[in-house]
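Case study: ornithine decarboxylase.
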Amino acid sequence: MSAPKGRGEPRRRPNRPRTRPTARRGAPAGALATALSAADTDRIIYDLTGIEAQYDSLLAELPGTDVRFALKACPVDEVLSCLAGRGAGFDAASPAEISQALRTGATPDRIHYGNTIKSDHDIAEAHRQGIRTFATDSVEDVTAIARHAPGARVFCRLATSGEGALWGLNRKFGCAPEDALRILDTARSAGLTPAGLSVHVGSQQMTAEGWQAALDLLAGTLTSLAGRGIVPDHVNLGGGLPALGYRDRHGTPLDPPLDKIFAVLREGMDRLRALAPVTFVMEPGRHLVADHGAVRARVARLTHRRRPDGGDAHWLYLSCGKFNGLYEMDQLTHQMVFPGRPDEGVTIPAVVAGPTCDSDDAYGAGLLPVRIPRDLASGDPVWILSAGAYATSYTTGGFNGFGPLPCVCVRTHPSPDHERP
Ligand SMILES: *Cc1c(COP(=O)(O)O)cnc(C)c1O
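Here is what the predicted structure looks like once written out:
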């Protein structure tokens, strides 16, 4: 079954890879490249033009979807303003995130409270801020919403397995389908609108099967809800869409099957629309920003040491790491560019790590080497690519004195229409 055509755009022919705004790998381009080359101190750089193109590309793939950026993935005012200017809404998880979303240009009707975990005070505060749509996954929470945000719309998050994702997000969130019936029934009796269902397939979901399972779960639950006379008006497909530029812990490109994922999504959305008159919300985080942010760091030291057990290893210590920009070192590695060092030069395997006195501050748990140039010196610049997601939000206040990276936003083609007032 083919997806409905969006905005009169021709559907692309199969087997013809389309150029995406996101480079799967290779050298940075445009404003990002210019800014990296010009940087003489450490920083994190976001390419607003790239982020806008990524947003447009997602809408072209899934026409009609209400995209609400999960702002924890990049809580940078300029980035949020640029997305809001493009028409994006926001998935916020606390009153402080709601404030930031409002401050950067979204109206309350374009923001929902997407966190299932909230105190009475959080609910009341969000309601005061004008928020009228809330995620939930328990009777206790929905009862509190009825009390502190009377008349609100609620959507119920279903638990998923997280299989196929780098970060599963299972266990802590979501309920079983039978509980969703009970929760939305409770909502209705308490004067709330049982407005929707949601899922999150896990962050950096690498398989189309992960999405297929979630869509099957949604279809089954929509059918059961209809049996109780509950007809939600929307389905929230959550986050989980992958970044394209990551490498695995061994340094091999991850290469997620994005086209296949979109095909499964389009088909699944058609199927759900046939079951109930629903519209679709998505809450992408990393997919919109990861590949359009890069870190400019430096080499602290390249060393070679023998270990007590007889083995030996090269270690490349960088000026930034897990605690100031590269939090996700636990599951992935980033492509590194050493400007001025040709790719064809002599390379050696080295374990790459951050600068702090914490052994978690290393790629691959400090065990998995990747190839780097042999002749790196302290102070040499290094560009760390596809580092735009979850960098600033997970940054510590300055563990061991290694403070947050200064943040810079750049554009390739200045477009006055979308510049900040
Ligand atoms: C973090 C989060 C997202 C974004 O997830 P990504 O994997 O970055 O796309 C979306 N929805 C909810 C509820 C989240 O907690």
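For the exam, be able to explain this: Residues 70, 72-73, 91, 114, 200, 203, 238-241, 283-287 surround pyridoxal-5'-phosphate (CB under 6 Å).
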